[in-house]
Amino acid sequence: MSSSSLNAGAASSSLEAILFDCDGVLADTERDGHRVAFNQAFAENGISDVWDVDRYEVLLETGGGKERMMAHWNEVGWPDVIGWGEKREKVMQLHLRKTAIFNELIDAGRIPLRPGVLRLVDEAIANNVRLAVCSTSNEKAVSNLIYTLMGWERSSKFQVFAGDMVKAKKPAPDIYNMAVDAMGLDKSRCIVVEDTFIGLGAAKAAGIACIVTKSSYSANEDFTIADKIVDELGDDPNTGVTLSTLEPLL
User: Among 23, 28, 195, 227, which one carries the catalytic annotation?
Assistant: First the structure.
C-alpha cells in the first residue's frame, strides 16, 4: 500500500474520519451494476419489467433497492406473478437475488473503483484518519465491493453501516448518525463523500460537512448546499482531492 506525502500532519489532527457513500462514490455501480442485476433477477422470476437507463435514473430518487422496487410497482402496477399478500416477501426475495448477481459482477471485475478512491483511502490510512462506508445498499454487497476492489488490508480499515441497519434510509440522516455514534466520532471533524442530492441531504441533516463527487446519474442534480463539488476524486494528488483539500471544509 502506498502512502502519500502529506502536508497533512495538521490535517490528520483535525480530520478524524471520512464517511463514504458506496454506490456512485467508491464505484459507479448504479447503471452497469445494480440496474443490470435487478433486470436479471426480474427475468429469472418471470417478471417482464426491464429498467432501462432513463427509468433507473428516475427510480434512484427513492433510496434503497427494496423501496425502489415497491415505488416502481406502486406506480406502474404489480406483476401478475406477485400475489397481493406476498408483495413484501417477494420483494425481499428479489432483492436477495439481485444482491447475489451484483456480487457476481463485482467478483468478475465488471465494476472498477472510481478514479482517486484508492489514493485517498491510502492517504487516510497513512495518517490515521478513520474510514467508514454508509450506504443504503445491502451490507454484504458493500463489504464485498470494498474487499474485492481494495484488498484485505485496506478493507480491514473500514467500518460498514449499510442496508437495513436503520429503518429510515437516506435522505434521512440515520445511517450517518449511527456511524458517528458507533465509532465515537466528533461530527465537526468528519467529512462525508456523496454523489447524489439524496445522500447530500442525509449528510447535511446529520450536521456533517459533505463533498460531492458527481457520478454518471447525478451530474445534473442540485448540489448547492454541498461544501465542495468535484467531478471525481482524481488519481493525481496534485490536482485531486486530498486530506488537505478536505480539512478546510470542516
Answer: 23
pLDDT tens profile 183-211: 999 999 999 999 999 999 999 999 999 99
Q: Are strands 130-135 and 228-230 parallel, antiparallel or unpaired?
A: unpaired
Predicted TM-score (pTM) of the model is 0.85
**Strand arrangement of the beta sheet that strand 228-230 belongs to:** 158-162, 130-135, 17-20, 190-194, 209-213, 228-230
Give the active site residue among 21, 28, 174, 195.
21
Whether residue 186 lies in the annotated active site: no
* Length of the chain, in residues: 250
Diameter over CA atoms, the chain: 61
Cβ atoms of 234 and 116 closer than 8 Å: yes
**Catalytic site includes residue 21:** yes
- Dihedral of CA 47/49/52/55: which sign? negative
